[in-house]
Amino acid sequence: MNPKKAERSPWELFFIGLLYASLSVLIVDWIFLKDTVLSQYTSMLIVTFTVMFSIPFFYFLIRFEEKKDAEIGEERILMKEHGKAIAALVYLFLGFIIAFSFWYMAMPKNVTAQNFKAQIEQYCAINMPNTFEKCITSYGVTTTIIGKSISTPISGQTGVKSGNAVSNLQHFLNIFINNIYVLIFILVFSLTFGAGAIFILAWNASVIAAAIGIFTEASFKNIHLGLMRYLIHGIPEI
User: Fold this and answer.
1) Which residue of 32, 33, 52, 83 is surrounded by the most CB atoms within 10 Å?
2) Please, which contacts does 143-146 make with residues 24 or more away whose CB atoms are closer than 8 Å?
3) CA 14/CA 7 separation, integer angstroms
4) What sign has the CA pseudo-torsion 107, 112, 114, 115?
5) How far is CA 105 from CA 50, 153, 210, in A?
6) With bands split at pLDDT 50, 70 and 90, how would you rate the model's confidence at 161?
7) Which residues of 175-214 are buried (b: 16+ CB within 10 A; e: fewer)?
8) Angle CA 206–210–214, to nearest 5
9) Which residues 6+ apart lie within 8 Å of 192 measured at CB?
């Protein structure tokens, strides 16, 4: 799959996204899931493997678009040409989401909790910051240290009174600020690493997939509702 072909048939990138994300889940579970230490980080290893699969295509796509910048002088035509690349990346992103959502629902609950541990923590940190520990525990996220299973709070969330309800405005600001952070990271990764922005795309796809899995209670029957709920704003964001 090269950039020229991707721009002619961007929908094919959907299946590439399905393949890359699925391979990442299966490879990481096969190699690392039973490892005492690395099994605690499978959620990030899955994203890392997805990025490694995607970087060659992403790098050459950026090179291809840069060549257009040098050759096309008219802004309107240039934006139309860049739109083809954006369409290809959106299909790739959709493939990631569908694959991650499928494996979130298909795997046993304890394996899902390991595979999407960081994503579930991110979901709880955004949506239920005042009851963070209770939230992650309810979705099976635990950390095993020397044979002891404990809940895994993020820094600064311990000791918060669960009785303090987050207002709608606070909830909106949490999501807005999180999106600003994502935007900053994309810019920094793009300027620093070039193809590094694919990490943010893969990470966001895995978080949305976890949110879909949580919303549908890991039920394939309601997956269409989960997709509608999160992709209505997810696609314009990407």
Assistant:
1) 32
2) 143/40, 144/40
3) 13
4) positive
5) 19, 24, 9
6) very low
7) eeeeeeeeeebbeebeeeeebbbbbbbbbbbbbbbbbbbb
8) 170
9) none
Instruction: For residues 159 and 171, give the distance between their C-alpha atoms in angstroms, rounded to a whole number.
Output: 20
H-assigned helices in 107-221: 109-115, 117-127, 132-138, 168-193, 197-215
Q: What is the DSSP string of 27-88?
A: HHHHHHTT-TTGGGGHHHHHHHHHHHHHHHHHHHHHHHHHHHHHH---HHHHHHHHHHHHHH
19 pLDDT band (50/70/90 cuts)?
very high
Are 120 and 141 in contact by the 8 Å Cβ rule? The answer is yes
DSSP 8-state secondary structure symbol assigned to residue 144: E
Predicted model pTM: 0.78
User: 145 - beta bridge partners?
Assistant: 148
pLDDT in tens, 51-98: 999 988 888 888 887 787 777 777 777 787 777 888 888 889 999 999
User: Rounded to whole angstroms, how far apart are CA atoms 159 and 175?
Assistant: 22
